[in-house]
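User: Sugar phosphate transporter domain-containing protein. Structure?
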Amino acid sequence: MKNHQSDLCASYIKIFIVVSCYWIVSIATVFVNKTLLSSASVNLEAPLFITWFQCIVSFMICFTLSKTGGIPGVFDFPKGTPWCKETIKQVIPLSIMFTLMIATNNLCLKYVGVPFYYIGRSLTTVFNVVFSWILLRQATSHKCVLCCAFIIFGFYLGVDQENLLGSFSLIGTIYGVIGSLMLSLYSIYTKKILPIVNQEVWLLSYYNNAYSIILFLPLMVINGELTQIWNYDNFNSIFFWIQMVIGGICGFAIGYVTSLQIKVTSPLTHNISGTAKACAQTVIATQWYNETKNGLWWTSNIIVLASSALYARFKQVEMEENSRRPIPEEKKSIV
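Assistant: Predicted structure:
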């Protein structure tokens, strides 16, 4: 009995540490990126270049881990190379979505405040429902659809209140909506591509970052960032490059702690943890930036957070019910 209780206690401590790491890394990543993208100390009007550099840092970490086989006693990094012709052909469509997703997310963060960032990107769940029906022909229950309706209402209310408070950014919100759309598409197509890389999430991350380094180059040219980079005065600043490297490490770390949290808990717990983290992030951001919000603004956040959590719960219940249904004889494998 004592051994069982000690094992249970150790398990709870492990879960607490992992969830805490996820919260710390995720919130820190948002604040670090906001500093890089918008602060006067950095003052570089090249958000895609900053994102591109973060992909380079993540790629170099993945490349090193692929050569060493991972971190002994922590995790094993799967073997694979992104420069195989067949792999490029199969994975590059997903990498395009990945590139657009992280680009629009950072562009959204550049133009909107951290307190509004979660609301600006809150339509991912809605797009998941829409694309699951259009692309996969998967129906969604009325309860989940109702949750999506409340998310849309919360998003609208948040935009309205942000506008009344004078801090609304139309271009930032548009980037947020596009980022939500791309995240939804990326999530759906990831399920299709994972079997190609033997269900190895780390290998897929390695490939995505490798291809994104190339895909970002024309985007930086189109966005007119070459002139900004050429005329930038702080390239010889050690502090600037320390900030850039920290941003890249945070970008890699958030992928690791996200996967680790899902592994030691469950996808539903991860969603609930992410929702609670977003709530804490919003509160911390309003205090950090000394921003005062009215009651309706906070109401919009509560509506979106509660609706997202309920949606995750309803989907879990549906999945459990489907797993308990007997499979018809004609659909069973002869094996």
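The CA atoms of residues 105 and 179 lie 5 Å apart. The longest helix spans residues 2-38.
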